[in-house]
User: What shape does this take?
Amino acid sequence: MTVVVLSWGDAVQAGTAEALTLAARLAADSAAELHWAVTSGLEQAAAAIAGQYGVRRLDVIAATPGSTDAVVDALAAYCAQERPGTIVIDQSVEGRIVAPRVAGRIGAAVVTNAFEVARSGAALRVQATAFGGDTRVEYRIEAAQCVVCVVTTTLQAEPLAAAQPFETRRVELAAAAPRAGFEVVSAPQVQGHRLEDADIIVSGGRGLGKKENYELVKQLADALGGMWAGSRAIVDDGWIDSSRQVGLTGKITRPGLYIALGISGASQHMAGCSAAKTIVAINKDPDASIFRYARYGVVGDCVELLPELIRAVRA
Ligand SMILES: Cc1cc2nc3c(=O)[nH]c(=O)nc-3n(C[C@H](O)[C@H](O)[C@H](O)COP(=O)(O)OP(=O)(O)OC[C@H]3O[C@@H](n4cnc5c(N)ncnc54)[C@H](O)[C@@H]3O)c2cc1C
Assistant: This one.
């Protein structure tokens, strides 16, 4: 049974190599072939790395979808035509939308928030997080086709020491021309580096009191050479852009150091930072949940402590 990774767009995304690594491991364990299906704009970029991840066949789908609806149309038509058993999608913002819709179109099972996949006889065992990242669950899938949406920030890319040869095949779709059903009128603004890749993140929450105090978070992040971020509460209040939100409905990060300032530690927030190597928290409330996760915790007023911290780091 084939394992296929689906990708689209015009550049290989951060996270694709990790998705290929997981898919290659599954294919090897289940004596299956690994295919990588890409829309035509990705052909060259995919061909440059496919061999490093044990891909046996690169399927180039004859489509250049210009909207999420069109991506779903093209990928669902491909999966219906080619009938791969396991379909792996990197859980990017768009991947999260595309995966369940592709599964729905072809009548396949779907698991999101996955971080490990293995075959067990006729069934697929998929490990994933659930309930806002609080719980780890294992699904046993017996459906003939399953779409697995993988949180690639939890994985490491493992290219082969020597690239292996693969076949490239052009796939014409029998499906009708796609029709756009909705249009994105505003998108998060991403400037420079990605939060998902940051080694140091300084994050602020509602405990900062007011938007002006968030400047202190930026100053500390700059002094440490890190990136600044925040909780959904302050995104909802318009203090920072949604591209800076950490958590279940924001970015899933895994920095070496995560500094949480005036953040309660709600499970939905921790889903985006609990994989950090070290969490440092400042919170006024000694019973705040964040202290259950923090290696170092300070019970105190972050607005008072921040200027001192910034001075100390700059010194
Ligand atoms: C479906 C769903 C998805 C969600 N997704 C996300 C997500 O992706 N990311 C996310 O962050 N949230 C998410 N949330 C919201 C989440 O549940 C919390 O409401 C949110 O994280 C709270 O943000 P906060 O900790 O900044 O604010 P609060 O909960 O208001 O906590 C403020 C904290 O600051 C402390 N404090 C107050 N004053 C000070 C001070 N001067 N100094 C130090 N500490 C102080 C308080 O003791 C408190 O612990 C989601 C919720 C739902 C239902």
